[in-house]
Amino acid sequence: MNKKAIICNHVSYQKNSEQILTDISGEIIKGNITTFVGPSGAGKTTFFKLLNGLLSPSEGSINIDGKPIESYSPIDLRRTVGIALQEATMTNATVRENLMLPYQLSNRTFNDKIANHLINQVGLSNDVLSKQTNDLSGGQRQKLSIARTLANQPKILLLDEITSSLDRLSQTGIETLIKNINTEYGTTILWITHNLQQAIDVGHDTWVMVNGQVIEKGPSELLENPKTELVREFVKGVHK
Amino acid sequence: MNYLTLSITLIFVLIPFVLSKTLKLELGKDIIIATTRSIIQLLAVGYLLQYVFEVKHPIFILAMISLMIGAATQNARRKGVSIKGITWKLILTFTTIELLTQGILLGLAITPATPQYIIPISGMIIGNSMVLSILFLNRFTDEISDKEDQIELYLSLGATPKQAIHRHLITSIKASTIPTIENQKTIGLVQLPGMMSGQIIAGAAPVQAVQFQLLIIFLLLTTAVVTSIILGFLSYPTLFNDRMQLTDQNN
Ligand SMILES: Nc1ncnc2c1ncn2[C@@H]1O[C@H](COP(=O)(O)OP(=O)(O)OP(=O)(O)O)[C@@H](O)[C@H]1O
Ligand SMILES: [Mg+2]
To answer: Which ipTM did the prediction report?
Structure first.
């Protein structure tokens, strides 16, 4: 039987009496790449923040690696379930300093060897290390954000892809990167993507979210042949 | 000055009042309110102080200081309503700064332990501490809502609330104390400080007035820095819940 990395049971989330996520249940299989697709405002980012502990569900329960999410200390949880945030937020400093951040926060030593390893791992060359993050392209920022999250060696990696569309080359770069991390470290990956072909090509499973709910979930191929009208509409809209 | 000469000084109220009327500045009502309030408040304080100075009982000194702290808290708390327990945090800040400064002043016999010294100096300290608190709270709440994404980034990587807020706390502490320090760089060049002017008018030797003013300036430096630091470290934990999540600022 497949091991479960994440189990959600009737998870809902409200903010200021606004219903943002409604009754989400489902399992994420350990070692898989699961993509999350859906229109803007569907609640994908909010769901990821629940998994990483930046938010807590209003109702329902979440299990991470066999343990209830509340049984983790917030810090352990956030390092076990790493997130690369949607905006690829950077501190106003160099690439190297951004990579150093997770090490500083946990009082671990950081050196050039580690910096080189982290940056090469995501397919960037050493000479970006001294650059200011403001000078990076969207694709580079995203990769740096992933590298910084990987510094905590998470068992589960949440990738919230930046919405502003990346150029074709950067997209392929991220695709390869995700596959590599997955095979090399066996990391369970949850990936919010806006490219359905990528979801089909790279992801094992997919969850389709619309309006705060998971409408369909299963093997990625379901995107080629959706069961529900809502998902059919969404898929058609993306391909237009 | 007697009450007759004091009444003549109302000319200085009349001038803006008449100007406001003729130029339709519509400041008339506010001028009357401001004048009436300052007359009543200051006279009341004057008589009260005279009484306290005559009786010399410590209980009256304590009562006056408590009153000052109460009024300062009332004023400053409006800027920090989004911070839980801001009232007692302000009271604690003002009390600490008062104890610290008076402790040093009286302990090292820098100023005599008489109400004539304790009360006006306390007034200046607590008043400045109040202004600093307001500056700090404004700056800190702005900084937090401005840099929410940065704080979230730190938390997402496993930072403690203190690590996540540290940079923003320091920025706010610095920003709120800079005006005090900047002010002191130009002090005396354009405008003589009010207290020093008062002492000179009352007949004190200018150099002695300056010495006393210097003491006040140094006290206000301590007040500025210590106020922001105490208030900052008391305030930041309430921005997070027990799951180390940023709590909503708008609630
Ligand atoms: N900080 C917030 N305060 C209030 N409402 C919010 C906040 N963040 C998100 N929302 C609301 O929650 C809902 C879900 O937003 P979320 O960002 O999770 O969607 P998403 O699927 O990630 O969208 P996108 O594809 O555009 O990134 C939206 O209706 C949004 O308006
Ligand atoms: Mg999103």
So the answer is: 0.95
